[in-house]
Amino acid sequence: MSIRMANIPELLGEGYQGFAGVETFLRRSELPDTIVHLVKLRVSQINGCALCVDMHSHDAKKDGETDERLWSVAAWREAPFYTDQERAALALAEAATRIADNPDGVPDEIWDEAAEHFDEKQLAALVAAIALINAWNRIGVTARLPAGFYRL
């Protein structure tokens, strides 16, 4: 399978810069970096985005994430390595990413659990992080950007 649009960042121009601006917002937000890393990795796994799984596992590792947590994020419900706050974020990320699986959207119990662990500003940032990584994944998968592409 070949890369369809290797030059997509430059073709998107201001659109790409808009996405980058949301990334800057997330880094400056009060949402813990560990949460952002785990959410980006899990959503990217669900969406099958090789580029983003590779990128976000490396980014998380560089920021001090452990191998056990990175290897286990796909099975976070059964793995003992995550806090209740992280579990709430991962549940929300999965529900929002698999939104078509539930005709009523994100279930109230998942939202309520997240709201118990995050204040309103953090929760808003979490929703933005989930939405943004889903958008990035759609670009990566559609353009067939492979793992390691961002390092090429």
What does this structure look like?
This protein is mainly α. Helices cover 66% and strands 0% of the residues. The protein has helices spanning 8-12, 14-28, 33-47, 50-62, 67-72, 84-97, 108-117, 120-142. 29% of the residues are buried.
Core attributes:
0% strand; single chain; 8 helices; mainly alpha; 152 residues
What is shown here, in short?
Helices cover 66% and strands 0% of the residues.
The largest pleated sheet is described as: none
| Element string (H = helix, E = strand) | HHHHHHHH
- What is the number of E strands? 0
Structural class: mainly alpha
Q: Separation of termini?
A: 17 Å
CA-based shape? globular
Contiguous runs where pLDDT drops below 50 for at least 5 residues:
none
**Annotation field: number of helices:** 8
- Amount of helix: 55-70%
Radius of gyration over alpha carbons? 15 Å
Mean pLDDT: 94
Strand content: under 5%
Itemize the secondary structure elements and their pairings.
Elements: H1 8-12, H2 14-28, H3 33-47, H4 50-62, H5 67-72, H6 84-97, H7 108-117, H8 120-142
Helix pairs in contact: 2-8, 3-4, 3-6, 3-8, 6-7, 6-8
